[in-house]
């Protein structure tokens, strides 16, 4: 299986929906059980108790029916949990292998908003030392902040808190996941928007599937998500106007969050100020 990691408003849904149009790939709607699964197994060493709790937890999560529950019955989830070795990677691979098998896909993946922020527990439970592949998408934090500010669900003053979180979580994932480079694929949102096929083609190679032109059929993208205000642009060709929008707002010195994220901005080859000015 594979997991897509990325900060909110960084193109994770756009990437996930593009991949999902390839019949060799299946990614359920956002799940909410991977992080609790990791905590349960990390804290409960008794396998008999742990397996029972894990199986019950997965099918009881709020989004089970709308996500992985669209493919697996509760009894099938239970069988996967009890047949796999008692560790996070093995249980995940068992579940998602069955999702792929039942849909006729070659590989199944997951994209959940909480995974990047919970990097630590996933690291501790050996997710990044397993055969699970990691797709890491990053978007310039200044555009992420602007996009978050336009949503109804972002907290106030997010520009004061989020840049540091973006910096630390993305750097931690990159530096740890690259220790197993054969299982790590990095992409910048801006590069995906500028040339989707140039990113999706090698990404398919990374996932050991054949590229499919349907991945570029923007009109079919995310039909069941477009009613949500924060996904209203799904179904349109990639919008270059959503890249580097922060430059239109004036001197970068007016953005105090740059200092909080400068290490990751440089790591991911983003300029710190317009026209390369420091």
Count of individual domains: 1
Task: Tell me the strand order in the biggest sheet.
Answer: 2-3-1-4-5
The CATH class is identified as Alpha Beta
Instruction: Let me know the average pLDDT.
Output: 90
Which percent range describes the beta-strand content? 5-15%
Number of strands: 5
Number of helical runs? 11
GO molecular function, one term: N-acetylglucosamine 6-O-sulfotransferase activity
Protein name: Sulfotransferase
Pfam families: Sulfotransfer_3
What does this structure look like?
- The chain is an alpha/beta fold.
- The protein has one domain: P-loop containing nucleotide triphosphate hydrolases (Rossmann fold, 3-Layer(aba) Sandwich), CATH 3.40.50.300.
- The chain has helices at 12-20, 34-43, 47-60, 74-83, 88-103, 119-124, 141-149, 158-177, 189-194, 196-206, 257-267, and strands at residues 2-5, 25-26, 107-111, 133-138, 184-188.
- The protein has a 5-stranded parallel sheet, with helices on both faces.
- Helix 4 (74-83) packs across helix 5, helix 7 (141-149) packs across helix 8 (158-177) and helix 8 (158-177) packs parallel to helix 11.
């Amino acid at each position: 299986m594979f997991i897509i990691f990325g900060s909110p408003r960084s193109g994770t849904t756009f990437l996930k929906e593009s991949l999902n149009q390839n019949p060799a790939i299946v990614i359920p709607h956002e799940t909410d059980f991977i992080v609790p699964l990791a905590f349960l197994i990390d804290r409960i060493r008794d396998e008999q108790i742990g397996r029972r709790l894990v199986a019950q937890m997965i099918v009881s999560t709020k989004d089970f029916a709308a996500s992985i529950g669209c493919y697996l019955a509760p009894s099938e989830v239970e069988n996967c949990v009890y047949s796999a070795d008692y560790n996070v990677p093995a249980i995940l691979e068992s579940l998602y292998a069955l999702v792929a098998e039942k849909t006729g896909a070659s590989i199944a993946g997951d994209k959940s908003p909480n995974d990047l922020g919970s990097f630590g527990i996933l690291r501790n439970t050996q997710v990044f030392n397993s055969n699970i592949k990691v797709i890491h998408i990053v978007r310039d934090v200044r555009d992420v902040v602007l996009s978050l500010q336009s949503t109804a669900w972002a907290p106030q003053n997010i520009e004061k808190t989020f840049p540091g979180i973006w910096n630390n979580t993305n750097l931690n994932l990159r530096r740890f996941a690259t220790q197993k480079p054969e299982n790590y694929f990095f992409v910048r949102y801006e590069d995906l928007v500028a040339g989707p096929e140039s990113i999706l083609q090698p990404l398919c190679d990374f996932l050991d599937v054949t590229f499919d032109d349907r991945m570029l059929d923007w009109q079919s993208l995310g039909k069941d998500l477009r009613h949500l205000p924060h996904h209203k642009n799904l179904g349109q060709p990639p919008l270059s106007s959503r890249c580097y929008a922060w430059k239109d707002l004036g001197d970068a010195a007016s953005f105090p969050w740059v200092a909080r994220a400068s290490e990751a901005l440089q790591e991911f080859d983003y300029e710190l100020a317009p026209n390369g000015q420091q």
